Amino acid sequence: MDLKKYIRDIPDFPKPGILFHDISTLLADADAWQVTMGRLANRVRVHHPDILAGVESRGFLLAAPLALKLGCGFVMLRKRGKLPGETIGLDYTLEYGTDRLEIQEGAIKPGQRVVIVDDLLATGGTLAAGIKLLQKVGADVAAAATIIELSFLKGRERLSVPCETLVDYQD
């Protein structure tokens, strides 16, 4: 199955000149969604994760059902102030400003094998920050995984772990 056929392209979103690859159409098709999760599970399974970390917000849509499929746990990496209780955070720079990711204190046990999951690898800033945050709390980050990679942006080069992707847009 060619998953690209289920990903809708929206020009000039969220701003002029950007071509947005919308996975909501893939999520809405039961067969394409099943194939996507099966392929992602096969790619992630080889890294033997104890737990998956989903990046807010579309990473949650992938990591939670993937964790169920793989029989492992799931934790959320969220934006500032969105998680209850004590959190540990990391500020990072994006091409258009700064942001912050946080994780609940104690969500990861030191040495747990983690795969970080998001929908898209573009410039790599958010995934790289997520990897650093997970390492900061003692995780053994085995890999990253996404549905889409915009390989022309070379985000993979910013990552310190292998990255599994299913669909590549080269320009």
**Helical/strand content category:** alpha/beta
- Uncertain stretches of 5 or more adjacent residues: none
Distance between the termini: 22 Å
Helix content: 25-40%
Radius of gyration: 15 Å
Tell me how many strands there are: 10
Q: Sheet with the most strands?
A: 8 strands, mixed
Which H/E pattern describes the elements? Answer: EEHHEHEEEEEHEE
Estimate what percentage of residues fall within beta strands.
35-45%
Query: What gross morphology would you assign?
Result: globular
Global mean pLDDT: 96
What count of helical segments does DSSP give? 4
Function: Catalyzes a salvage reaction resulting in the formation of AMP, that is energically less costly than de novo synthesis.
Pathway: Purine metabolism; AMP biosynthesis via salvage pathway; AMP from adenine: step 1/1
Subcellular location: Cytoplasm
GO molecular function: adenine binding; adenine phosphoribosyltransferase activity; AMP binding
Explain what you see:
The protein has helices spanning 24-28, 30-45, 58-70, 125-136; strands spanning 8-11, 19-22, 51-55, 73-79, 87-94, 97-104, 113-117, 120-121, 140-150, 163-169. The chain is an alpha/beta fold. Helix 2 crosses helix 3. The longest helix is centred in the first third of the chain and has 16 residues, at 30-45.
Keywords:
globular, 4 helices, about 170 residues, alpha/beta, eight-stranded mixed β-sheet, 10 strands, two-stranded antiparallel ribbon
List the helices and strands and how they pair.
Layout: E1 8-11, E2 19-22, H1 24-28, H2 30-45, E3 51-55, H3 58-70, E4 73-79, E5 87-94, E6 97-104, E7 113-117, E8 120-121, H4 125-136, E9 140-150, E10 163-169
Parallel strand pairs: 3-4, 3-7, 7-9, 8-9, 9-10
Antiparallel strand pairs: 1-2, 4-6, 5-6
